[in-house]
Amino acid sequence: MSDSTDLKKAGLKATLPRLKILGILEEPRARHMTAEDVYKALLDMGEEVGLATVYRVLTQFESAGLVIRHNFEGGRSVFEVNQGGHHDHVVCVECGEVFEFYDPAIEERQRRVAETLGFHVDSHSLYMYGTCLGMKREGKCSKRLIPGSGVPRERDGRG
Amino acid sequence: MSDSTDLKKAGLKATLPRLKILGILEEPRARHMTAEDVYKALLDMGEEVGLATVYRVLTQFESAGLVIRHNFEGGRSVFEVNQGGHHDHVVCVECGEVFEFYDPAIEERQRRVAETLGFHVDSHSLYMYGTCLGMKREGKCSKRLIPGSGVPRERDGRG
DNA sequence: TTTTGCATGGGAATCGTTCTAGTTTACACT
DNA sequence: AGTGTAAACTAGAACGATTCCCATGCAAAA
Question: Can you tell me whether residue B100 is helix, strand or coil?
Fold first, then answer.
């Protein structure tokens, strides 16, 4: 509801597509979505928003710092709302589940490395890819598969 | 020249395109190249190799563990020869330069995090994006810009 | 209410990448 | 060395994700 305030603070007009998209991303269960996911969610809500608009708005949100874009394995971008606290990601390539974590020690070491190189860091990303507990144990994940949370393993099938 | 042995060890026939591509990637100055870069390098050498072949071969090399694929910001993949030692990357978004580092403490913490989650890690990647010393100081980088080493900043023209 | 200008939607265009079809080559076996 | 066969090759079409283009829409300013 106060989304419109967020938008204006970010220097963006509070238009309906923008409000809807931000609303979707802010749903707790929406953690990591592709542009396509957001588009489908809009269609499901009965909103007539073009895919081009979704991409445009997501990029604007990224520039404004409202969302964070991730380039997980598989090429397509996934977005999550920027809730302030930086965190890193663990992605299950079997079920697509995404876990988040924050490790101060890792952050500190990164800072140190950058400092040594005289490098000014704008952003950094740490992803771990593998198999989650649920998939290892039962071949299925206890958590539901959020569409687009990642791309289950499949790149070439072997050439 | 013993590249053909490397290929056979990896279970791949020693064809001319594969030998050439591996050769290009093994040049010390070739550190991180996109498929397009490799293709252009082949053309420059006067080799008639199709772009599709480059992509196919790179994917095969990845499957065989000969090269590592990175998904830097910007969507497109970059490849580097797998020289055994894992390392992480620092990418200058101004000049495209890529620095490498290895920090045992970070690796250890990552292992710890995965363990805590009961997560089996297949691969992990850590990238830092920002501005290198050369670009900060002089607006230019002391190192030459390897084409495709990364994608100089440009996503929306707002930053 | 008219003007002004950014935002939108839909489709075409573009980019990186993969697939398809038909041809050629590497390599094991005469 | 000569040959058969599976694998690899090339070019170009196809593809999915994303961006561009532009006529239309709509909201704030005049």
Answer: strand
Give the integer Cα–Cα distance in Å for B117 and B3. Answer: 41
Q: Which residues of chain A have pLDDT under 50?
A: 1, 144-159
Element (H, E) at A54: helix A51-64
Q: Which of B106, B144, B90 is nearest to A115 (CA)?
A: B90
Q: Give CA–CA dist A154/B116, Å, rounded.
A: 26
Task: Name the H helices within chain B.
Answer: 3-9, 16-26, 35-44, 51-64, 104-117, 133-138
Non-local (6+) Cβ contacts of A158 within 8 A are B63
Q: Which CATH architecture has domain B3-138?
A: Orthogonal Bundle (1.10)
Does the beta carbon of B56 lie under 8 angstroms from any beta carbon of chain A?
yes
Give burial (CB, 10 Å; 0-12/13-18/19+) of B10.
middle
Contacts of B113 in chain A (CB under 8 A): 90, 101, 103, 128
The separation between the first and the last C-alpha atoms of chain A, rounded to the nearest angstrom, is 50
Task: Give tens-digit pLDDT for B18-67.
Answer: 999 999 999 988 889 999 999 999 999 999 999 999 999 999 999 999 99
The total of other beta-carbon atoms located within 10 Å of residue B41's CB is 22
Cβ-based neighbour number of residue A103 at 10 Å: 16
Give the Cα separation of B128 and B110 in Å (integer): 16
Q: Are strands A88-92 and A120-131 parallel, antiparallel or unpaired?
A: parallel
Residue A128 contacts B, CB cutoff 8 Å? yes
Domain boundaries, chain A: 3-138
Residue B38, both tokens: 């490799």
